[in-house]
């Protein structure tokens, strides 16, 4: 697939009604309603974890396998659901984005591209060019997901 | 996976870089001239981390709010606000 045609997919900033954005919204909302009605692990922390997982899941499912980052994220989500373990140590190797467990004092010395590779799902196996493309797409989807979640909060907090 | 780097032109790389740069919040304030690659990568990393933190915070807030959600009205409002944004 040429990069130009994939621009017409998730990535056109002028396309507010893009199907993948609506897919993201509907997937996330359905997950929220399921979480709302679940009786297992209905602690605040448990619900928060599930909601966070639903956020990344709706991003990944709306893009599917079109992108490396979404495929990698889908793999992580599926391996985590197979584990179904509340033990945080077991979940560590399939960690979702954005939750480093340990501070990284060496960061200044590290190549920034390497830091970025660890933040973008599937990034560690990408060359620099691919990394730039995938990062752009990932950042767009992640910021859309944040706006979506903010919209839900706003709609409920009247 | 074969390396395609030799077949990617400098122009394509510049295009990728400017696309990414246009997404980042701080670079919009900057004047003319492209930020250095290292600075761009660093800002991208910071931006991704801040977005991830927002996902965490919003998940916590939704966890508290979810009990009060009314299914039909919430969904309609969200779709409306997405159309507006």
TrEMBL record, chain A:
Top-level taxon: Eukaryota
Organism: Ensete ventricosum (Abyssinian banana)
Protein name: IBH1-like N-terminal domain-containing protein
Alphabetized Pfam families for the sequence: IBH1_N
Taxonomic placement: Eukaryota, Viridiplantae, Streptophyta, Embryophyta, Tracheophyta
Residue ranges of every copy of the IBH1-like N-terminal domain listed in the record: 26-80
One example of a Gene Ontology biological process annotation: regulation of DNA-templated transcription
Keywords per UniProt: Transcription, Transcription regulation
UniProtKB/TrEMBL annotation, chain B:
Domain (BHLH) ranges: 1-51
Keyword list, A-Z: Growth regulation, Transcription, Transcription regulation
Pfam families tied to this protein: bHLH_ILI (PF23174)
Keyword Transcription: yes
SUPFAM superfamilies: HLH, helix-loop-helix DNA-binding domain
Matches recorded under PROSITE patterns: BHLH
InterPro entries: bHLH_dom, HLH_DNA-bd_sf, PRE
GO terms assigned for molecular function: protein dimerization activity
Gene Ontology biological-process annotations: regulation of DNA-templated transcription; regulation of growth
Family: Belongs to the bHLH protein family.
Family annotation (PANTHER family): TRANSCRIPTION FACTOR PRE, TRANSCRIPTION FACTOR PRE5
Name under which the protein is recorded: BHLH domain-containing protein
Organism: Ensete ventricosum (Abyssinian banana)
């Amino acid at each position: 697939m040429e990069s130009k045609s994939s621009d017409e997919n998730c990535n056109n900033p002028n396309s507010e009604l893009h199907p993948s954005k609506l897919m993201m919204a509907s997937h996330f909302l359905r997950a929220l309603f399921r979480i709302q009605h679940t009786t297992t692990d209905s602690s605040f922390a448990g619900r928060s974890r599930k909601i966070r997982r639903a956020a990344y899941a709706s991003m990944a499912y709306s893009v599917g396998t079109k992108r490396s980052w979404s495929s990698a994220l889908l793999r992580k989500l599926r391996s985590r659901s197979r584990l179904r373990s509340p033990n945080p140590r077991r979940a560590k190797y399939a960690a979702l984005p954005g939750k480093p467990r340990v501070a990284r004092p060496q960061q200044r010395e590290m190549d920034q591209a390497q830091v970025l590779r660890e933040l973008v799902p599937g990034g560690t196996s990408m060359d620099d060019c691919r990394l730039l493309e995938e990062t752009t797409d990932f950042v767009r989807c992640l910021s859309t997901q944040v706006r979506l979640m903010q919209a839900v909060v706003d709609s409920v907090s009247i | 996976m074969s390396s395609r780097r030799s077949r990617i032109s400098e122009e394509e790389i510049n295009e990728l870089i400017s696309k990414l740069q246009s997404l980042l919040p701080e670079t919009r304030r900057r004047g003319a001239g492209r930020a250095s690659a290292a600075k761009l990568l660093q800002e991208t990393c910071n931006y991704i981390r801040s977005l991830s933190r927002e996902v965490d915070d919003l998940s916590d807030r939704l966890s508290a709010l979810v009990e009060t959600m009314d299914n039909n009205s919430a969904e309609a409002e969200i779709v409306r606000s997405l159309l507006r944004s």
